[in-house]
Structures are given as C-alpha cells and as structure tokens.
Task: structure prediction
Amino acid sequence: MSLKSLLEKNGLNLEDSFYEDCKIFVELLQKWGKVHNLSGRLSFEDISENILDSLYPLKFIENFSSFADIGTGAGYPGLILAIAKKDIKAFLVEPRIKRVAFLNFVKASLGLKNLIIIQNRAENIQDINVDLITSRAVTNTKLLLEITENMKKSNTSYLFYKGSMLESELDEAKINNYNIISRNDRNYLYIKA
Ligand SMILES: C[S@@+](CC[C@H](N)C(=O)[O-])C[C@H]1O[C@@H](n2cnc3c(N)ncnc32)[C@H](O)[C@@H]1O
Result:
C-alpha cells in the first residue's frame, strides 16, 4: 500500500509536498540507516508504519505552535511532525552524533526552515520553552516529565508515544488531566496543559 493510501485510510490528509518530502526521507533513511545503525526497521512498510505512528495523534490534540521532541533518533516522531507541519517551530533533541548528523542531512535536503536540531540530552537544555513536548521510545513518563522540566512553560502539553504497559507508569508519574488515544498496541498519552 502506498504511504498516501495508508495515511488516508487512517484519516490523515496531507498535502502532495509532504509525500514528496517523505519519499526523500525514506530514500535517505534506507541508504544511511543500516550503515549508521539509525533504525532497526528499514523496509518501506516499516518506515510507512512509523510515519503513520508519528502523525496519528495529530487528529486528537489541540493546536500548537512549537514543540520539542525528546530522543528523535532517526526521525520519529519529531522529524515527521516537522515535515507535516512546516508552520510550526520544531526542536529535535538527540544526543547521539550519527543520528544528529542524519537529521541535519534530511533537514538540509528538504530545506526545513522550521527545524532546530540540538545535540544534547533533554536534561541539559535550559533555553527553550515550547507548547508541546513529544517523545517516543525513550524512557518512562515520570522521567520524561523530570528531564523536560526546564523546557516547560505554564501552558505546555505533552504527547508521549507508549506501548501497552501504561497503567503503572501513570501511577508512578502521579499525573492527572490526561487522555489516552489507542491504536493497535500503541497508546498515545496526551497530558494537556
Ligand atoms: C529507542 S531510541 C527511539 C528513537 C525514536 N524516538 C523512535 O521512536 O524511533 C531512543 C533515543 O533516545 C535518545 N535519548 C536517550 N536518552 C535521552 C535523553 N536524556 N535526552 C534526549 N534523548 C535521549 C537516544 O539517543 C535514542 O536515539
């Protein structure tokens, strides 16, 4: 199935330019992914599923004008969100140099002006404040909230991409005012400001 059919089947309608950019992203990731150990899943189907996963919660969350993605790795979800939403300021926070080099290469190849890539660990960042903090497959909810403390402002929301073992994490993190959006084995945890 084409990426466009997959996304449309899941209720996501993106402009043609998004698919043109994704085509280049897929080519670059398939070219460099294995050499630099960027991502374990490099078939077109796997990358398409990761793109869908990155974008799916957009259907449910409130508008935002800036976000920081913690531990973007090879691009999920932050780079994909930045490609889909070029009017939004995106910060990608990733400590590993080869992953950062790849993200910078995609940024240059696509001319993404809305994107700032920061080679650092989240807990070391002092000088950015954003509307939304996202993260997928990095660490548990409690720790994510702790390491992003410096990035939050009074109205910062959070979108964490989680698996099925979410309940104990929620107890541990002592959060309230959240929604969980489920899709297959994925739980998208949205903590609203
Ligand atoms: C399992 S990978 C997930 C990558 C991507 N989010 C995904 O879902 O494919 C975890 C990533 O988090 C990064 N990471 C780990 N600890 C971090 C921290 N404290 N701050 C920012 N990034 C971190 C790692 O370098 C790694 O690239």
Observations:
- The mean pLDDT is 95.
- Residues 70-73, 76, 93-96, 99, 121-123, 136-138, 147 surround S-adenosylmethionine (CB under 6 Å).
- Residues 16-32 form the longest helix (17 residues).
